[in-house]
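Minutes, project check-in

Agenda point 3 was the complex the collaborators sent over. CS summarized: two entities, 340 residues total, and the question is how they sit relative to each other. Sequences were read into the notes so everyone works from the same version.
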Amino acid sequence: MNDFSELERELRKLRPAQPSPVLFERVGEALENCRASVSDAKWKRWRFTETPYNWVSLGFGLAAAAVLILFAAVTMERRHEHQQTVAQSSPASKAQPVPLGTERSISPSRFVPAGGSNVVYNARDEGLHFADGSERPVRRVRYHTQQTWRWRNPETGASLRVSYPSEEIVLIPVSGQ
Amino acid sequence: MEPIASHENWRNCFSEVAPGLLLFARQWVQSAADAEDIVQDAFVKFWRRNHDIANRGLLYAAVRSLALDFIRRDARRARREATVLAETEPVIEPHFELEDDTPSALAAAVESLPRDQREVLVLKIWNDLTFSEIAGALGISQNTAASRYRYALTNLKKTLQPQ
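CS then shared the predicted structure for the full assembly.
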């Protein structure tokens, strides 16, 4: 940066063009206008607070707010009572016997098996191995599968689906030729 | 430094910053009268909001923003006038006060700089802004401001070197 110090000095010697005197007058007027408009706004605000109309509108506003709060309180109380009723009904349902055996077959919540699938998404050949006590080698293959079982309720049409990953190891005897 | 809004006489404050502000505004508008309009609007807004002189980057940012608005608003008029001006000799008002009315080689070299370098140079040399303040005013990083300043000085040096 020291290389430029001489150049910077030369640049600082150049003086920017001065603003016209009219600009000062214009800025002064604009600032005066701002002050006048601010004080005018304050005066208007004061007048607004002093007028009887303001008290009337304030009274209306407060009354409307009070009615709204009262309405909200009543609504909340009713909702609370309703929730309490719902809560009381649950112990009664707890006392109901759980359907078992033959009763289950006539229950509307009966599910019957509707199918299943076993998707092999990976099979790995782990080579030849000797199983315990066996003299013949076996080939061990490891399968990774995704098993899915489905049940269906014929009465309601509802269905239940359970899906889980599984791993299966299959030993294939190797016969010599 | 004293807060700008605490100056009882705004004239003192404005007379300090006005020449630099005008020069900055002239980076976008050729006419001195348009530049004065922009500076007036920016300064009045800045003063009304009681901004602190510590945030003077905001004043320059306001000038830049108003100048860019002016260009956009005035583009249509400028296109119309361009056809008229093309037929006449262009009158470029000088950006600097020249001692003997002859265009200084240095002033001409400054005016020939790319705009992004020139605006950093103007803010640094004639407005005494720090790189941090320049970065805030122009919406660039401090490193970018510093490197543009170095490029500007390098270009000036090249231009002024005797062939």
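Noted in discussion: The longest strand of chain A covers residues 112-130.
Follow-up: revisit at the next meeting once the mutant set is ready.
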